[in-house]
Design brief:
PH-domain like, PH_domain, seven-stranded antiparallel beta sheet, cytoplasm, elongated, PHLA1/2/3, 140 residues, alpha+beta
Length: 140
């Protein structure tokens, strides 16, 4: 996503529940853009505040998971427990990905807002495309 020139809207750490038997919470460095969410395993060598701001993550691409808004259905199941907000990203193919973050970070709201804006942009482009085709067909 960042390769296509999308700027980061929000950066920080989210905890993602693993798919394994134990379903442990694993910290992921996240970059939210206008196109989706990048999940990057955090660097073990440097604390987050000392990491340089990079347009592209330095980790190998195989470790980076991209959740593109075109494949995202909803962000739901928001629950507040203790200091955490728990939420689920539902993908178009039905896969559910569970996340949690500190309440004050507002990741669920930021992801939802960006997803809605993305879907609105796509709908506007589709309407414009349809109108252009209709106008082209109406011309003699």
């Amino acid at each position: 996503m960042l390769e296509s020139g999308c700027k980061a809207v929000k950066e920080g750490v989210l905890e993602k529940r693993s798919d394994g038997l134990l379903q442990l919470w694993k910290k992921k460095r996240c970059i939210l853009t206008e196109e989706g969410l990048l999940l990057i395993p955090p660097k073990q060598q440097q604390p987050p505040q000392q990491q340089p701001q990079q347009p592209l993550p330095a980790e190998p691409a195989a470790k980076i998971k991209e959740l593109h808004f075109s494949n995202m259905k909803t962000v739901d199941c928001v629950e507040r427990k203790g200091k955490y907000v728990y939420f689920t990203v539902v993908m178009a193919e039905g896969k559910e990905i569970d996340f949690r973050c500190a309440q004050e970070q507002g990741w669920n709201a930021a992801i939802t807002l960006q997803m809605v804006q993305y879907k609105n942009r796509q709908a506007i482009l589709a309407v414009r495309s349809t109108r252009q085709k209709q106008q082209h067909l109406a011309q003699p």
